[in-house]
Amino acid sequence: MGAQLAKQVERRKSVAAEKLALIELFEGSGDQFPGCDYRPADRKTWMSALGPANLRVHQIVWPGTHDSATDKIGLRFISRPFAQCQSCSVYRQLAGGARVLDIRVQKDRRVCHGILLTYGVDVVIRDVKRFLSETEHEIIVLEIRTEFGHEDPPDFDKYLIEQLGEHLIPQHAAVFEKTVAELLPRRVICVWKPRKSPAPKPGDPLWSGGFLKDHWIDTDLPKTKFENNLKRLGEQQPNASRKYFYRVENTVTPQPDNPVVCVRPVTGRIHGHGRLFIAQAIGRGIADRLQVFSTDFINDDFVDACVGLTHARIEGKA
Fold first, then answer.
1. pTM of the entire predicted model
2. Do strands 110-113 and 116-120 pair parallel, antiparallel, or not at all (unpaired)?
3. What pLDDT, in 10s, does the model give residues 61-119?
4. In terms of CB atoms within 10 Å, which end of the chain has fewer, N or C?
5. What angle do helix axes 274-283 and 2-29 make, rounded to 10 degrees?
6. Can you list the alpha helix ranges (DSSP code H) found in the chain?
7. Contact of 257 with 11, CB cutoff 8 Å
8. Best CA proximity match to 278, nearest among 303, 258, 260
9. DSSP per-residue string spanning 10-54
């Protein structure tokens, strides 16, 4: 018991030290970057406002949500705090400016996070369609994967094509060079990542998992995650010469050896440092690699930071 208590004390000290390190980094270098003062007039239509004919896919800093469809997962006040990563619906995330969704499913087409289940994926598709019907020029990257430890839903690729067919942008590497206007009226890049079922092929309506990559770093230490994100980002090719999306997740993950295992207080250790990350990426000369930037509990400021850097890119200022 004494050894376990001592270990917990050390873990708490490590977390406190890393939180302080991020604060000191902010105080020492700030979080200013080209476009940081930009605010879209309407986050629901920010791509439209930037000009679809001027905005190339590889220039966009795509605001994303991690575990997007977990707003009602599990049982409220009981299991939900251990798996909830977003507090609002997929529709509200999109209307608020998010453009990359991370959806996990299991064999019965229900959304899940680990062992916990929530509503069916039909709810997600309905929210996506509603958003598309209310906008004209907004492009969405919809990633759907079979959750680890679960089986693929049968014929799920056919289901996605039936539901989203007219909106789907077919898999082709040339898409990254195109402007938003050149992709219209199709507006959804749907990445399907099954565990055992055949992956989508070039030219298919769906995209294979290799077109959306990341490096998941499983830690609850915020400075460790922050620096590892920068390290991995620096290993990528610049967006203009890369034919896949690369995602950085501004999140940390609860660990079983720490007494705090609810998502919100743990991810809160890094949540407010999205602008700091962008500023550091620019300062270290690797901002031209930043493309998909995702977070838990997305908010207006995170969206504005991504849109601001995108605006600076098309203005030639970043």
1. 0.97
2. antiparallel
3. 999 999 999 999 999 999 999 999 999 999 999 999 999 999 999 999 999 999 999 99
4. N
5. 60
6. 2-29, 46-50, 90-95, 121-134, 156-164, 180-183, 222-234, 263-271, 274-283, 300-314
7. yes
8. 303
9. HHHHHHHHHHHHHHHHHHHH-S--TTTT---S-GGGHHHHH-TTT
